[in-house]
Design a protein that fits this description.
globular; 14 strands; 28% strand; alpha/beta; 33% helix
Length: 269
């Protein structure tokens, strides 16, 4: 029995001029969940041909992993310009069915939905995942990204899927796409019980129906690799909430974990 399940498509990432490497929300979530020794299970999908390159490193984190074969593996190329990420979508992965997603969640009550584009987890799948009292955390990137190849395309045409979401995590750019500006008022109006707005080097905001609370950034000295930082934050936040922490405390713990992990990645040879 696990209290948390991280579910999603793995990806092949090419960062700047570097070699291909494993990626995807579920990959970085698994890494964070392993670092903080969370009670978690992982369910991930990719093409069989890419399984050695993607699933073996995922399993190396030490958490229980269930692999689901797909016809295509998600693929990206990207580089960073300050806090901003410039991305190219080279391939779109499989769509998770309701039955597949519920099977992957198993007995977990807190679910990190690792959507990379909106076709990964369609409305009916999110509805099935949210049944039986499961609490879903999803990053807005997986709602606003269109499943098309080429330069990343986003829009706010997400329908009513947020009614299935307990925790929405998003950055300033994603907030702008979804509600017009990265401001607490329109984000609160979305009706999601907990909204986490990350502000890069400025920290983050925790937005609930009753309050907006700021979480200061964690200062990091030395090299960092910010790839997957948002996914790391989400995994740590969900873990803290599953352990009984209130939203503000969960966000503080998530910030600390994200800072530690991006430093460890940046320090690795």
């Amino acid at each position: 029995m696990s209290s948390i399940a991280a579910i999603g498509n793995l990806s092949i990432d090419r960062v700047a001029d570097g070699p291909p490497r494993p990626g995807g929300t579920v990959f970085y979530s698994a890494q964070a969940l392993a670092v903080i020794v969370a009670d978690a299970r992982i369910a991930a999908s990719c093409a069989a041909a890419d399984r050695p390159q993607l699933v073996l490193p995922l399993e190396a984190f030490g958490l229980p992993v269930t692999w689901y074969p797909a016809e295509t593996t998600t693929a990206y190329r990207f580089h960073y310009e300050g806090d901003s990420r410039v991305m190219i979508q080279d391939a779109v992965g499989a769509t998770w069915s309701s039955e597949q997603a519920v099977e992957a969640a198993a007995d977990a009550s807190w679910i990190h939905v690792g959507a990379l584009v909106r076709s990964d987890f369609p409305p009916q799948t999110l509805a099935a995942l949210a049944s039986d009292g499961r609490r879903l955390l999803i990053d807005a990137q997986g709602l606003i990204r269109a499943p098309v190849l080429g330069p990343l395309r986003t829009d706010g045409d997400i329908g009513d899927v947020l009614r299935y979401v307990e925790i929405l995590k998003l950055n300033e750019e994603e907030a702008g796409t979804l509600v017009g500006r990265p401001s607490p008022e329109p984000l609160r109006a979305l009706g999601v019980p907990e909204v986490i707005l990350t502000l890069g080097s400025e920290g983050s905001l925790v937005i609930t129906s009753s309050a907006t609370e700021a979480v200061p950034p964690i200062e990091i000295e030395g090299p960092v690799d910010p790839t997957g930082a948002g996914d790391t934050y989400s995994a740590a936040y969900l873990t803290a909430r599953s352990e009984g922490a209130e939203p503000l405390e969960a966000a503080r713990r998530a910030s600390e974990t994200a800072a530690m992990v991006v430093f460890l990645r940046g320090s690795s040879p």
